[in-house]
Amino acid sequence: MPELAEVERYRQLAETLIGRTVQSVVARDAWFLKRGLTPRAARTALTGRRLDAVRRVGKLLVIETDDGAGPNLGLRFGMSGRLVVDGRASIDDLVYEAASESERRRSRAERETSRASNRPVTAWDRFALRFEEGGDVRLRDPRRLGGVELDPDETALGPDALHATTADVRRAIEGSRAPLKARLMDQRRVAGIGNLAADELLWRAGLDPARPARSLTPDESRRLAHHIRRTLADLISRGGSHMGDLMPAREAGAVCPKDGTPLVRRTVGGRTTFSCPTHQR
DNA sequence: ATTGTGGCCTGCCCGC
DNA sequence: TGCGGGCAGGCCACAA
């Protein structure tokens, strides 16, 4: 499910849509349309448009139309949203399943049954575009926490985490006594860090998620910026946010893969957080 | 303004 | 087998 790494995969998948022309808009779930958008307005705005660029800003996917003359289509995936292009989900599913020994040993049928949210169930397709050239793109979201909007306000997002500089990170955390992790996950400060990536990169950086953001030394901020970029790039190349080195230990009773210390599970910034009390200070 | 909390919506998994 | 509770990778409105 979608953090930056997943949305980056969706972006790559969506590149195959470039050059296609919207034949029809399927927006049966009005609740899924945001900022006052209605099914009728979406149909009017998008039908006949050619898709000509796909960008990712943090966890937001932006599809541009008609060389800037048409509206931008903004897709958000919430916690359970997936992008399906021409009937294919993005390959992060495959990587994820292949990575699990137990999953691999099981039959495809069993896997399909147990991982119901991956099945091609059209009831969960909340929004779709069909193309004159054939094929379609669908936003499949069982929990309906994602959404679709036109011309999303990208200025509300901070610099993209994948390319965050030390200066970006310092700006994001300076002066704040909120937990470091909460600040990193504030999309207005830095865009794209989700709960799993936050745990992973703070674990790699050796920083306590609960530390007041402003307590970092200049050297720690630099180290943090490095690990933000490095971790996200790693997660993208490995195929998903669940591919981090800390992830296997993200369960009750697990120990730190670095030093064997029992991990601490708590809520930080309102989110379940795993960290190592020994090497994360 | 900043920070913390609750809620949104749905599905899955565990324990009884 | 059925049922209730707790959980989930995001985000927004709200209160202090």
What is the secondary structure topology, with strand pairs?
Layout: H1 4-14, E1 22-26, H2 39-46, E2 51-57, E3 60-65, E4 73-76, E5 82-85, E6 88-89, H3 92-99, H4 101-105, H5 108-114, E7 125-131, E8 136-140, E9 147-150, H6 166-173, H7 180-184, H8 195-205, H9 218-238, E10 264-268, E11 271-275
Antiparallel strand pairs: 1-7, 2-3, 3-4, 4-9, 5-6, 5-8, 7-8, 10-11
Helix pairs in contact: 1-9, 6-9, 8-9
The chain binds a DNA duplex (16 and 16 nucleotides) through helix 8.
Strand order of the largest sheet: 1-7-8-5-6
What is the SS-derived class?
alpha+beta
Number of strands: 11
Fraction of residues in β-strands: 15-25%
What does this structure look like?
By secondary structure, this protein is α+β, with helices and mostly antiparallel strands. It folds into two domains: 4-155, N-terminal domain of MutM-like DNA repair proteins (Alpha-Beta Barrel); 158-275, Helicase, Ruva Protein, domain 3 (Orthogonal Bundle), CATH 1.10.8. The chain is built from nine helices and eleven strands. It has helices at residues 4-14, 39-46, 92-99, 101-105, 108-114, 166-173, 180-184, 195-205, 218-238; strands spanning 22-26, 51-57, 60-65, 73-76, 82-85, 88-89, 125-131, 136-140, 147-150, 264-268, 271-275. The strands form three sheets. Strands 1-7-8-5-6 form a five-stranded antiparallel β-sheet, covered by helices on one side. Helix 1 (4-14) crosses helix 9 (218-238) and helix 8 (195-205) packs across helix 9 (218-238). The structure holds a DNA duplex (16 and 16 nucleotides).
